[in-house]
Structures are given as structure tokens and as C-alpha cells.
Amino acid sequence: MCQGDSKRVAVIGAGAGGLVAAKLLRDEGFRVKVFEATDKIGGLWVYSDTRGALYKSLRTNLPKQIMAYSDFPFSPSLPSFMNHQDVLRYLHSYAERFNLHEVIALSTPVRSAEYVSAHGDGARGGWLINGEELFEALVVANGHYNVPNYPQLIKNDFSGFAIHSKEYRSPSPFANQRVLIVGGGPSGLDLVSEIASVAKMVVWSGTSFSDPDTAATVRSKLPPNVKPVGRLEGLESDGRYLVKGAANELVTSDGTIDAVIYATGYKYDFPFFSESSGLFPSRTMNRPESVRDALYVHLFHRKHPSTLFFLGLPALAPGIFKVMEHQTKAIIAVLKGTVSTEGLASLPSFPWVMLEAAFPYCVLLDALAAGTHDAFPHDYQQVTVKLPRDIDLRMQVFRDTIAAIASMPDRYKEREYRIIDECDGGGGEIKWEVVE
Fold first, then answer.
1. 212 within 8 A of 229, measured Cβ to Cβ
2. How many domains does the structure of the chain reveal?
3. Is 139 a domain residue?
4. Is residue 398 a part of any domain in this protein?
5. Which of 14, 57, 172, 233 has the smallest set of CB atoms within 10 Å of its CB?
6. Is 179 exposed, middle or buried (0-12, 13-18, 19+ CB in 10 A)?
7. Is there a single domain that holds both residue 316 and residue 301?
């Protein structure tokens, strides 16, 4: 452990991002304090019947082989697609293994985080937390599964049962009902597969399903009581729904629905920053584009690039635990002064919805940590970026999982991955196989 840097760093949130940030920052000699609003660590992965974004039977939609921190693998006894209790136990074990509880303040919400400038009288500048404690740097790892996002509809006269997926816990309330599930992403697929087992009919609304061929392909791979339809545009009082058709026209359904579940994601939420802070455009700080435009490489705030950092914000970044580990290593390089913040503005941009772009993104973050980022190609999408063995493995397994979701959307979590490391000294490819 390096003891040479005594900067105080505040971390907001003791979920997967806050834990890895605390561990790596402390290893490098920083004085870390993690502020956790609840009385438990684990963030998103803490299940509750009344709050949080988990439902009872939730399993991960990516295999454990691409989720684990680099120095702490998941137990070999766990299935590739774990339930949420397994992930929470993993995070608890990680915190215990590296003695992180000593730097975590539970039941300590951050109500305000304000930047104060240094003064000529020798007073230090930094981030004032709750008007009491001053830190040289702030890492925001509060997650983005707190404030539900709802679609903008041209009309919504439906008075029946309607919830966001954040409120969903089990399929039993939907037995023998006709249920509309809005959202074509991973959460939507999970709920479709589960609710179809008890519902009379599931209508699944997604933008891509406006295309008849896409809708037919999806329908052929799901239970017979699932009907894919285009993007939801409105709801009538009698339970009919309006969707976008193949020619971009509005189509009103013949049948009706009894209940609606919105699996439409979440808004970004940083309630501890005031609108007057200037960190995000006024009244738009929870919009993805506002957050994206305020950051360099989805990580360093443009206004305070050497002291304000955000973990885990990009959407659909596979292996997000690992992504946040790479992000933290890049943060450390900036905090230690081995990377100049002046060069951050010239770094290449990455899509907000990452998917496969997450893998070269992690290579760039590692280059920042090593101080070799100037050599990273700006046209990384047109050239082949050499991926280290571990990142290449994650990309291969991710690609295979995406293919399995497309071919067997209601059964892909039954598959098991096995990593075959030939122990060749690190020079060769890490091999893997699927056991079905």
C-alpha cells in the first residue's frame, strides 16, 4: 500500500461501484470515507418487498464469468446466471475480505455536496459534504435505479392497474390477466418470460417490434401467449392501446389489457447537487444527454475534472462491476497527477449505450491508468483495438450471451459457461465453453 498521498476522498454509495472505489483508493493511500444512505451495503442488490429495483426471482442477465472484480472471483459452485441473493453475498464477502466496513458510514445520506474554492488565507478547497466535512475529491457511485422513467404518451386515459418495473415483485397479481409490458430491453424480457407463465396474455411493446418481421421472429421464440407490438404511444380508458405500426402510423388495438408494467428504465438522480451548482444544465440534470455532455469519457466532470468523478453511468455496459474497477483506476491516475486533466478533452468519445463499445472503453481506461492514453486510436471503431486477455474473454462471452438471448430468449439463463485457462503465462487466449 502506498502511504504517500493523504488526500481525503468521499464516495457516495456503498454498492458495487462504491465498494471497488473504496478498496482501490485506500490501497493507493487515499483517506476514504464512503457515505451510504441506508443501513446496508450492496446498493441495487439489496432486496426489499417495498423499495429497490429487484424482484423476488431476479437472476443476472449476464454470466458471472464477466461480472467479477479482477481480484475476487465468484464461487465456482454458483451458476453462471446467479440470483440476486448470490450477488449480494458476493459484495458482502468482498467488503469483509478487504476490510471495507471500516471506511463505510452506514445510515449516512449525503444531503448536499458543494464545491468550495480554496482561499488565499490558506483554507483548502474541495467538496463540502452535508456542510460539515471537506474532501479533496468526490466519487459519485449512487447508482441510477432510483427514479423511474416513464414514456411520454400522446394520451393516457387508462385507469387500471399500472406500475413501473421498480415496483414489480412477483407474477402472482397478474394471474389470468392481459398484461401490457412496455420496454424492449433486458428488464422487459425478464418480465415477459416470468409473467407469461401465469397471465392470460402478455402484450410486449418495444420500438423494434413495429417491424413485422422482427415481431414475428421474437414471437416464434416466446410462449404462445406473448404478442410483440410496436412502441407504445397511448392508452385508452377502456384498456385499448395505441402503438406505432410498420409505416410509422398509429395503430389502435382491437383487444384490451387489464394491467400495465413500464419496464422503461430510470432517470439519473443526483439530489445532493443543487441546480445552482452549474454541474448540469438547470432542470435537466436527470436526462441522459445532460449527464453525458457534462463528462469526459462518462467519468470526469468537465467543470472539475480532477476532483469530481462518476462511476457506472453508461447504459448497457456489460460487466459493469469490472467497468467500474477500470474507471476507478483511471480516477486514481488523475488524483495522483500522473495524468493531466488538460488532455481529457481530447480523448475519443464513446456511446452512452455502450454494449460492445465497453470493451475498447476499458482499454482506454487502462491506458489512462498507465499514462499511455495518447496512443489510443481516436478511430477505435474503424481499427482493431488489441484487447488484453481478460477483456477479450469478456467480449467473447458477452457476444455469445447476446446470441443466446436472440435465439432462446426465455431459456438462455439455463446455460452454463466454463472458463478454460491454459496457464500459458498470459500470452494466449483464454478459452471457454458452454455446458448445456
1. no
2. 2
3. yes
4. no
5. 172
6. buried
7. yes
Query: Left, alpha or beta for 172 (phi > 0: left; psi -120 to 50: alpha)?
Result: alpha
Nearest to 183 by CA among 191, 174, 193, 173: 191
Return the pLDDT at 383. Answer: 77
- Please write the tens of the pLDDT for every residue from 214-244: 999 999 999 999 999 999 999 999 999 999 9
pLDDT band at 3 (very low <50, low <70, confident <90, very high): very low
- Asked whether residue 275 falls in the same domain as residue 143, the answer is yes
Domain range holding 351?
8-147+267-381
Question: pLDDT tens for residues 389-434?
Answer: 999 999 999 999 999 999 999 999 999 999 987 554 556 778 899 9
354 and 298 in a common domain:
yes
Same domain for 115 and 212, yes or no, is no
Structural domain contains residue 402 = no
Contact partners, residue 140, CB within 8 Å, separation at least 6: 12, 13, 270, 308, 309, 310, 311
| Whether residue 159 is found in the same domain as residue 67 | no
- pTM score, two decimals? 0.94
Q: What is the pLDDT of residue 286?
A: 63
The pLDDT tens digits for 283-293 are 555 678 888 99
Q: Domain boundary at 381, 403, 422, which?
A: 381
8-12 and 31-35: which strand pairing?
Answer: parallel
Rounded CA gap, 267 and 145, in Å?
8
Shared domain check, 137 and 276: yes
- pLDDT, tens only, 125-151: 899 999 999 999 999 999 989 999 999
- The radius of gyration of the chain from alpha carbons, rounded to an integer in Å, stands at 23
Convert the pLDDT of each residue in 83-94 to its tens digit. Answer: 999 999 999 999
Considering Cα of 130, then 25, then 31, then 307, what sign does the dihedral take? Answer: negative
In angstroms, rounded to a whole number, what is the distance separating the alpha carbons of residues 363 and 426? 17
| DSSP codes, 36-73 | -SSSSS-GGG---SSSSS--TT-B-SS-GGGTSBTTBP
Q: Which three cell numbers stand for residue 101?
A: 466496513
Q: 361 and 233 share a domain?
A: no
Contact 137, 335 (CB under 8 A): yes
Among residues 339, 358, 381, the one where a domain terminates is 381
For 167, residues 6+ apart whose C-beta sits below 8 A from its C-beta are none
Are 285 and 300 in contact by the 8 Å Cβ rule? The answer is: no
Tell me which residue of 6, 276, 267, 268 sits closest to 114, measured CA to CA: 276
Alpha carbon distance 19, 26 (integer Å): 11
276 lies in the same domain as 142: yes
